[in-house]
Amino acid sequence: MNIKLIAIGKTDNKNLQALIDDYKKRLGHYIRFEFEIIPDLKKVKHLSEAQQKVKEGELILSKTEKSDILILLDENGKQMDSVAFSNYLQKHMNSGIKTLVFVIGGPYGFSDEVYSRSNGKLGLSKMTFSHQMVRLFFIEQLYRGFTILRNEPYHHR
């Protein structure tokens, strides 16, 4: 199984980017992982929130295949602890799917089309985090999930 993370806009903070790169490298020992950045939309001043969500949604959906399982990282999504998340990953790996895609939306969330296409929603916390921090937190949790599945000591540090 492949795992792909799609996010809107680049990571501006070099320290965050270095940490993201570190966890991406670590993940490579467990699974094929791809992190795809969709550039921020240009000229958004003239777009309503709904129009911006639709345009971002079109870009998100253009990066997926019909066979992909699409999971939205959404504040209203199902929350789980790290062990439950590792079991969630294992369940998907056992299902024989080719690619599991997670998506971090833009500043206003997801369009109705993206919600309709999705196969589920996952929430990281009841707290609000910046979109750039969510990238790091999620990639770290992916790494943690695989170390849990392999009974490696990382989770217990």
Automatic annotation (TrEMBL):
Keyword annotations from UniProtKB, A to Z: Cytoplasm, Methyltransferase, rRNA processing, S-adenosyl-L-methionine, Transferase
NCBIfam families: PRK00103.2-4
Family: Belongs to the RNA methyltransferase RlmH family.
EC identifiers of the protein: 2.1.1.177
Domain of life of the source: Bacteria
Function: Specifically methylates the pseudouridine at position 1915 (m3Psi1915) in 23S rRNA.
SUPFAM superfamilies: alpha/beta knot
Record's catalysed reaction(s): pseudouridine(1915) in 23S rRNA + S-adenosyl-L-methionine = N(3)-methylpseudouridine(1915) in 23S rRNA + S-adenosyl-L-homocysteine + H(+)
Enzyme class label: transferase
Sites where the protein binds S-adenosyl-L-methionine: 73, 105, 124-129
Main location: cytoplasm
Subunit architecture: Homodimer.
Gene Ontology cellular-component annotations: cytoplasm
InterPro entries recorded: Alpha/beta_knot_MTases, RlmH-like, tRNA_m1G_MTases_N
Name of the protein described by the UniProt record: Ribosomal RNA large subunit methyltransferase H
Keyword set includes Ribonucleoprotein: no
Cellular compartments annotated: Cytoplasm
GO molecular function list: rRNA (pseudouridine-N3-)-methyltransferase activity
